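Quick question, first post here. What does this chain look like in 3D?
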Amino acid sequence: MAQETTRDGSDSPSGSVSPPIANGTNKKDKKSSKKRAHPSGERRSSVSKPARDPSDKPEESPSKKKKKRKTSSTDAAAVAAIPSTITEEVSPSTSVTRSPSPVIDFDGLSRPSRGTRERLEETEAQKQARLDKMKGAVRTLLECIGEDPDREGLLATPERYAKAMLFLTKGYQENVRDIVNGAIFQEGHNEMVIVKDIEVFSMCEHHLVPFTGKMHIGYIPSNAVIGISKLPRIAELFARRLQIQERLTKEVANAIMEILKPQGVAVVMESSHLCMVMRGVQKTTSSTITSCVLGCFESREKTRLEFLSLIGVNR
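> Answer (accepted):
Ran it through. Tokens below.
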């Protein structure tokens, strides 16, 4: 008598083998393997997904790039309309447009405020009233530190200090255009120009004590050169304000870049801060070096190193 095939597919004595059951494990394995298989038959590349490092991201499709170009053209059109909204009327016949740099204002008042505008345009009577107010404030300070402002040595101190402070901050009432005074000349020169060891005196805005040092300014013209005395004058303009060294270095570089439109500008400043020499950590031999490089000085290492070598920083 012939035997039937068992449930596990073993042969009966007659040697016949029945086909696997429709819902058996073989078909399940085939279905699961088909689901896991990539449509192309190859493993998916991990580079097709955005990487954690932005520089490793795959290139965008041309359609996305076209969309970006459309967006950028729209933005450019919007930006082009901005200058008309920031044009200041100085007189009925002339108008001054604020520089696109966030730290340079060709009206002369970087970080302008109501107080600096009033000081620039005040009358003689208003100047005297301002001086008297400052003298009273200095007298109060002398009293608060325990001094007698009426003793012989301090009688004229409030007025002296008030006048000195007005001189040390006179940069608020000066502007770049008047300092340059048209001293830009088309000479067809395109080699490096450096004015080094410019003495700089400024006031720390955090403690109202001086920091002093030297500034080195270099630029590579695009045909036009500026009178060399104008570079120290520009440095003086921004130094005669309440400052920090980092901002002072950047303001000088940005001003020269926008006035002259050169291939590049580099500014390095070395200074000693009395706020950390006379007080605080009291480190008398320390010095602070800051730099700002724009244009070709930023993009070309050899040009930058040449400048640093010529001013002696690489010694």
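The chain has a mean pLDDT of 77.
The first strand starts at residue 87 and ends at 89.
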